[in-house]
Design goal:
alpha+beta; disordered C terminus; 31% strand; single chain; 170 residues; seven-stranded mixed sheet; 7 strands
């Protein structure tokens, strides 16, 4: 199985927009969102990933087929972090490719691609995501991460620092 993680061009934004609909449909199990009058969820922040510094879109392919995406942001320093940090804003692997290690390998690739402080947050009701991220981050960091709660977020947040590993996807 060949895994590719690519940064799409602005001309490929429509691909991510289409995959985002599948993601939001899956995510509707955990949030009370409805499609709009055109029958789509829409994602109002998508353009930022091509127009705003510190926003990074990725497409995930398996054997040349689209398998998912990730949206990563670099966030300026805050009370939790003394310097900027990276955040997984959205992460999606299509059901066909789940349970095959694609999500883990993709996450490891992103952590390696952006060495430094990281924050990964899951909503309180998304228990499968919590299990996934705890397992992946624990393995990536050799269980060297901190899980916190914040007043402005309803769910767990994992904090850790990534370093360059010998990533199997490279």
């Amino acid at each position: 199985m060949k895994l590719e993680i690519l940064q799409p061009t602005v001309d490929q934004k429509y691909i991510l927009r289409n995959l985002m609909e599948l993601y939001q449909y899956d995510f509707s199990e955990f949030e009370n969102e409805d499609v709009n009058e055109d029958g789509v969820y829409g994602y109002r922040h998508l353009n930022n990933y091509w127009t705003t510094p510190g926003h990074f879109p990725f497409l995930i392919k398996v054997d040349g087929n689209l398998a998912g995406f990730a949206l990563v942001r670099e966030i300026a320093s805050s009370d939790t972090h003394s310097s900027s940090y990276f955040k997984i804003c959205e992460f999606f692997i299509m059901k066909k490719y789940r349970k095959e290690g694609i999500g883990k390998k993709s996450a490891f690739y992103l952590f390696d691609f952006f060495p430094g402080a990281w924050e990964v947050a899951e909503i309180e009701t998304n228990l499968p995501a919590q299990r996934f991220w705890r397992k992946v981050i624990s393995e990536y960091t050799d269980n060297n991460f901190l899980e916190v709660q914040k007043d402005n977020w309803h769910g767990p947040i994992q904090l850790f620092t990534s370093q360059k590993h010998l990533c199997p996807t490279r």
